[in-house]
Specification:
Largest sheet: 9 strands, mixed
Strand content: 15-25%
Shape: elongated
Distance between the termini: 11 Å
Number of helices: 12
Structural class: alpha+beta
Order of helices and strands: HHEEEHEEHHHEHEEEHEEEHEEHEHEHE
Helix content: 25-40%
Radius of gyration: 22 Å
């Protein structure tokens, strides 16, 4: 069934008010948010989301990984639900929109359908996936990965944060572990609305990014060991400086990424230095190398070169080194039918749009392996994300959610 006419729009003011209300929970220090997964702030955000969903007439499901599913019934009891959603957890210095727009935009779709009295054949569901960010418990997209069968639940629940606390223990502590087995739900399709987290849409003057593919990602944790000693009294020839070894490997990471320009990228974002004292030469460093590309062969080449050339650098310096792959996923091609529904929705609403490849990982990348999936992106100012200064406009948020509404209606089937 074709998408309804362009007269159907969501309530942009209500969506924006909801985004601002959620942002009051787990405030950051510079205008953004610190609502890391399985913290008390995460629990508070979940409670507010559940309250809003119940007020919108949805039943709330909760699985044993803490994934939340709010269901708006359809007219056909045998029809599989059409899912929307993203995540409510943030980076330690995160913005107000990364992930949250996808969850609260989905809620606004349901609210608007209620306002307009529209019924759908398929049920419509809103998902809040646990621990998408992976900043406290690596890897990212952890619970959607368990849902899709990528990780085992036992392995996921054994993940530790920097303080040695276990994911499973913290999930129970905040009171958001459900009884529903992970992955038992079947989906007709899923759509994830998200900010771009990059500068392309804003630079091109486009309202909507129609996401056709997602970059593959590889996270390798590198541990370099030397010998911590006094910075002033240790002669240069006798030093085993793990910090210097890391510096040389970081330069190597940059060279490897540049060798696959323009579509490959690489950097280290998480770095721990021990003992991290002003007058002690570092004896140990631990950092995570993040390589990304839409080409699997390129990712594999970057991983191989990091290990081979990084090993030689450390051997030549008399340093120990270990490489451990701690996360990643292959490049993603989203479902052509769902992508076309997004494109048709943008066309019918008159929004300027373009095809785009997601440079970041998202829950949709895992769900795409078990159900037809697509993503919708809206611009963000200067492409800035994972930063408290992350910003979007109300018009951008509204446009993205309007497209979500129409794509979901086409997929779920409007009942006359």
């Amino acid at each position: 069934m074709p998408a309804p006419g362009e007269n159907l729009r969501i309530n942009g003011d209500r969506l924006w008010d909801s985004l601002m209300e959620m942002a009051k929970i787990g405030p950051g220090v510079a205008g953004g948010n610190n609502r890391q997964t399985l913290t008390d702030a995460d629990a508070e955000g979940r409670a507010l989301f559940q309250k809003w969903c119940q007020e919108a007439g949805c039943d709330m499901g909760l699985d044993s990984m803490g994934n939340m599913f709010a269901i708006r019934p359809g007219t056909d009891p045998d029809a599989l639900p059409v899912y929307m959603g993203s995540h409510l957890d943030t980076q330690p210095t995160g913005g107000k929109y990364d992930g949250v727009l996808g969850v609260l935009g989905a809620l606004e779709v349901v609210r608007s359908l209620n306002d307009m009295g529209i019924k759908t054949r398929h049920p419509i569901a809103i998902a809040n996936w646990t621990n998408e960010e992976g900043t406290r418990f690596a890897p990212a997209m952890l619970s959607s990965g368990v849902f899709a069968g990528i990780h085992t639940e036992d392995w996921a629940k054994s993940r530790q944060d920097a303080d040695g606390k276990l994911f499973g223990d913290e999930l129970r502590r905040i009171g958001w572990q459900g009884d529903e087995p992970v992955g038992q739900r079947k989906m007709h399709a899923m759509f994830e609305l998200h900010i771009e987290q990059g500068p392309i849409l804003e630079a091109e003057g486009k309202d909507i990014g129609v996401v056709t593919h997602g970059q593959g990602l590889s996270w390798t944790q590198v541990t370099i060991t030397g010998k911590d000693s006094h910075t002033g009294s240790t002669p240069m020839p006798l030093r085993k400086n793990a910090g210097l070894g890391m510096a040389k490997l970081l330069e190597l990471v940059d060279q490897i990424a540049w060798s696959h320009a323009p579509h490959a990228v690489g950097a280290a974002g998480h770095i721990d230095v021990y003992p991290n004292s002003r007058n002690v030469i570092p004896g140990k460093v631990v950092f995570t190398v993040d390589f990304r590309s839409p080409d699997l062969a390129v990712i594999q080449d970057m991983e191989k070169r990091l290990r081979q050339e990084g090993q030689k650098i450390c051997d030549d310096m008399g340093l120990g080194v270990e490489f451990e792959k701690v996360g990643g996923f292959d490049p993603v091609a989203f479902d052509e039918g769902c992508v076309s529904a997004v494109r048709r929705a943008a066309d019918s609403l008159g929004y300027a749009h373009m095809n785009i490849i997601s440079g970041a990982g998202h829950d949709a990348c895992w769900i795409n392996q078990v159900a037809p999936t697509a993503m919708i992106m809206c611009p963000c100012v200067d492409g800035l994300s994972h930063n408290e200064a992350e910003e979007i406009s109300k018009d951008w948020a509204t446009a993205g959610t309007d497209v979500l509404l129409h794509a979901v209606l086409e997929t779920a089937g409007v009942v006359a």
